[in-house]
Amino acid sequence: MMFPLNPTIRRDDRLNDDEFYAFCQANPSLRIEREADGQIIFEMPTNTKTGLRNADLITEIVLWNRKKKLGLVADSSAGFTLPDTSVRAPDVSWISHERWNALSEKEQDKFAKICPDFVIELMSDSDEKYTLPAKMEKYLRNGVRLGWVIDPFSQQTTVYRPEGEIEVVNFTDILSGEAVLPDFELRLSDLL
Question: DSSP per residue over 89-150, as a string?
Answer without folding.
Answer: --SEEEEEHHHHHTS-HHHHSSSBS---SEEEEE-SSGGGGGTHHHHHHHHHHHT-SEEEEE
